[in-house]
Task: structure prediction
Amino acid sequence: EVYLVESGGGLVQPGGSLRLSCVASGFNFRIYNMQWVRQAPGKGAERVSTIDSDGITTDYADSVKGRFTISRDNAKNTLYLQMNNLKHEDTAVYYCASVGSTYWGQGTQVTVSS
Result:
């Protein structure tokens, strides 16, 4: 059975940092391009960042460029999202997923508030 389990979310003040992790199991993680997607209350899903299977090529939404960094450790079947200089508008549920959306995690809540 396939699992993508996110962790690392929480409540943080504006300007703070969080590191999200997503541990994969049940599929060949290392051959999949992966992504982080977020959904804020009352809004549609937004693709935050993608990374290729080798961890070499990355892409970011304009809204997070320069603040967020995606990475992966294929030996640990884990995807990461380092989020710095967080803003109120980053508040959302963050999901990890394979590109093409075959596999999805359950999401982790990130709340940016003073």
